[in-house]
Amino acid sequence: xxIVHFCGALKGGPLSAIAxxxxxxxxxGHDISLIYSPLRDPLESFQKDMPREVKLIPLEVQREIHPRxxxxxxxxxxxxxxxxxxxxxxxxxxxxxxxxxxxxxxxxIPAIYSTHGVAFLRTDVGPPTRALxxxxxxxxxxxxxxxxxxxxxxxxxxxxxxxxxxxxxNGVNLAELPPPQPKAPHAGLNxxxxxxxxxxxxxxxxxxxxxxxxxxxxxxxxxDGELRDMALAGGRIAVAGWMPRAExxxxxxxxxxxxxTSGWEGMPIAVLEAMSLGLPAVxxxxxxxxxxxxxxxxxxxxxxxxxxLQALRSLDSNPDLRRxxxxxxxxxxxxxxxxxxxxxTWLALYSEVAARSGRNSRPEQGKDGxxxxxx
Length: 375
Fold this sequence. Notes:
Number of domains: 2
Low-confidence stretches: 360-375
């Protein structure tokens, strides 16, 4: 098959997910293309994370809603789809989902839309904006594209959106991750946060919890972002910045606990990876987070600053509980979130959707060098 991924913002969880899926799909013998927006993601910002065999295609798409430029993006994408006739267009996140669903309908290309956290769950915008995002998802749902939520709670949040909706959770490639490391006894907690420091990750809440925590607890944020100053305020959280993936995994493995203070989610891959490394996770009670963490078994799901602090204090006072929860967290990932198993689920969905559209022949190569599907 010729599988085309289209993502409006190649950062954080969506980039990790797409990189993992494309490696798996290439290994299965499929042709893979990735359409990206150079306005949001310069090639050098993500190229190192993608397999070299993936064909990279720029398409300018703005982040904010802008009818004139958005319709221009729809026209450009429709022309590309008509020239290249891929078997499946896999859309990632809200903006690419909007532009891509309209273009796919116009070009009669089967499409699948992965939400990665629906925009109407955002907590950094007011009710009118959330209502606008919900209305857009409702109208786009009438197109008939298969929508894939990445957690059961996200699927529940979309229950009134029209169209076929299913849930396929995010996964991790356990073969790429180091095994859990034994930790020498030490005082306090070594706490990590991970990801882009944006409004979604709620660095203000993280900072308040850190400020109220005992002075011998160590806090490190693995990542960076536009709200880094908010994370740094108060001097309790050290911002490590962006670093090679191997170093991120090494620092995760050496920590005692993962804290995730996000205000909204789809399903956070950073928490999945921390759990796979044997860390208990203390997370906010939002969509996606509560699908990963089993309270009292693999970590804690907490409400607000007081709940997060109480959960961390219980882990600080009981190293045996940390080990037990970390072991249970890793087992949960192995049993339910293995990329090997979930990758087969994705490929089966691609085949089903492509077959329903009657796509069973390989078209000629497009003018821009893109390739069609082969079976």
